[in-house]
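Late entry, evening session. Most of the bench is empty. Finally got around to the prediction I had been postponing all week. Sequence below, unchanged from the version circulated by S.P.
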Amino acid sequence: MTSSHKENLSSDATVDARSGSRGSSGGSPNGMEDAGSSVRPVLDDELIGTTVGEKYRVERVIGTGGVGVVYQAAHVELGHTVALKVLRSDFENSLGRRFGREAKVLSQLAHPNIVGLTDFGFHEEAPYLVMELLEGRTLRNLLTVQPPSIDAAKSIFRGILRALAFAHAQGVMHRDLKPDNVYLQSLPDDPFHPKLLDFGLAKILSTPDGPDGEPTLTRQGAIIGTPAYMAPEQASGGVVDGTADQYAAGILLFELLTGRVPFDQIRRTELLRAHMVAPVPDPSSIRTGLSMSVPARDILLRLLAKEPEDRFESVEKALEAWDALEEDDISFIEPDDSDATRPQNIPSLEEVREEMDSLAPPATASTKRGNPLLLLAVLGALAFGAAFFFRSQQTPPSQPSSESSELPPELLAIEERMASATEVDREAHREARTYQRQHPEDHRPSLMIAHDLARFGSWPQAVERYRIALAKSSAALDDERMLENLVTCSGGRRNQNLCGDFLLEAYAERARPALEGALNETEQRAVRQRIEALLERMNTPE
């Protein structure tokens, strides 16, 4: 048995929105809290050597969590070892009810992918839980070394979805899903069998006040969960339902595939804000060699949607979509040492400006109104004498597309709002997504969102939306602005691999005239080299 077994059988991480204090967020692999945590480590082992509940002989401390201490214990009569969790005595008495609620919650969750609760009781007025003792390690321990193989990642994620789907069917959500709360049990035929731990923060979905009308124990103004895995509505202290678990699962999937979370800001306030407003980076741009198909990307995008209503109808639906993937929808090829390092972070506004400087987009309606970001971009481009766009065919990025005359009034109004905005209008994007859900076969809302994201330099998210539009209809290929934007991005310093790969994948030989036209329109050496490399790839069979 590893010494790291379930240091977080309940870490009940809490971030107080008023004080900023932070409970356990996963901590160190040895089961003790991080030095900066507000939770103190156990200072004595007074229970070791004693018998709890007249049945469990306490042997040693396994680890500590936010409200409890976890011990390894042996059943006095049967002799088998168990994990024994006892509520810490230095916490206020009201938390005893939370601890008892955890026992009630876990007792409902008999599932192969959820840790089993075998007993519950009180020792000298302190409640305790008895759970199965597992062989293996946490997902956090695994990720600390390296991302698992793609096959292992797929299997682990499927187990996580199965556990969540079952728990939600019982009216229970987790609310603190993270690698520390996923235990990888080592079985003879499955070395990474996932089991979800720590339903200490679980919320009974069937009643707002908890079971039997008992008031909930969460204080108003407190944010429950671990910041790196919080859904936007959870980070803002809003109403949280089962879709928040989907978002956390999406973060886990991203981490399983890339080895890092999509948002890793150090300051807590910046991290929470990133969940609420920052676009999700493309996993393939972070881990060189990773390849994801359109359906696989769509699953990740839906799980990590900013708006709860944009996620899956249920975890069961997410599981169905996951099971429908083909074997090669997610793959990984070990890159050569010569492969270029791909960007590791979401492009900042400064990086977007630098990108626009090098690509020299035309003056838009936004720059004419004095948008400093775009104005500096255009001035910088003019200084280098670059004019990287199609003068004869281009629709200015801030103007309605060529299909506008055919758009229904709802979409036309949304597009006009996007075109007149000096920054991304997320409300307009939300309305476009709402229209998309109502008209799932119409690819134009996705194109509109993609064009707008491209206008502000959010290329990874723009490409994702272009993929979605193309998956809905091949008519997306007839949109001149999509082709133009992809060529522009492919010639840039950042995201050229992402855009170039998709450009060749989607258009193949049809992209040649646009690439050659762009090559003739710029004299910048770096841009020309990137475009020439794409043309060479078109000339060289894979």
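Two things to note before I forget:
Residues 14-132 form a domain with the Phosphorylase Kinase; domain 1 fold (CATH 3.30.200.20).
Confidence is low (pLDDT under 50) at residues 1-43, 203-223, 337-405.
Will write this up properly tomorrow.
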